[in-house]
Write a structure and sequence with these properties.
Blueprint (H helix, E strand, L loop, with lengths): L9 E5 L3 E6 L2 E6 L3 E5 L5 E5 L8 E10 L3 E10 L2 E9 L13 E4 L5 E5 L1 H4 L3 H5 L7 H6 L30
Antiparallel strand pairs: 1-4, 2-3, 2-10, 4-5, 5-9, 6-7, 7-8, 8-9
Length: 174
């Protein structure tokens, strides 16, 4: 086990924006909790929390590698829409202590999976306005009141709002 230092620097920092990974035309990772790892002269790598990755399209492989600074890496192969990317994802499940922040996170080879930064404004153009809106209803609350198609909801249904929303006299009827 080697420790990062002046001869081989490694830094880990929280990403400033949301990051995504796309494969076969589908977003397979989307996180506003990504970490950026910079190691010596290597390109920076984005590490996604496992809960923000569509793991159902990945299968663990027998491949493993060892880094004297980070520890042992395990690999996943990606299969989606008939497209296959062997060992395209790696993870340090039990990294060395200096690399603990990347434990259980996943990173993608950029030649196999498209990785890109997304400004919150591009994902939600009203994000700044919503941050300051004290009357905003959380998404979780809306989902709990939504019928899942089986006639049941996690909470009692809201009382319908039958007030007119316009001034043209039609009481909202079309």
């Amino acid at each position: 086990m080697k420790t990062p230092g002046p001869d081989h620097p490694i830094t880990i920092e929280a990403a400033k924006n949301r990051w995504r990974a796309r494969f076969a035309g589908h977003v397979i990772a989307d996180s506003n909790d990504a970490l950026i790892l910079r190691e010596a002269d290597y390109p920076a790598r984005v590490y996604f929390p496992r809960q923000d990755v569509a793991m159902e399209y990945m299968s663990r492989t027998d491949r493993s590698t060892h880094c004297p600074y980070k520890g042992d890496a395990a690999y996943y192969t990606l299969l989606m829409d008939g497209q296959f990317a062997e060992n395209a994802i790696w993870t340090y499940e039990l990294p060395y202590p200096a690399m603990e922040p990347i434990a259980e996170r996943l990173s993608f080879y950029p030649d196999k999976v498209e990785i890109y930064e997304v400004a919150d404004a591009a994902v939600n153009p009203r994000h700044v306005e919503e941050l300051h809106d004290s009357h905003r209803v959380s998404v979780d609350e809306v989902v709990q009141h939504t019928d899942a198609g089986d006639g049941a909801a996690q909470r009692e249904r809201w009382t319908p709002d039958t007030r007119a929303t316009n001034d043209d006299g039609d009481d909202g009827l079309r």
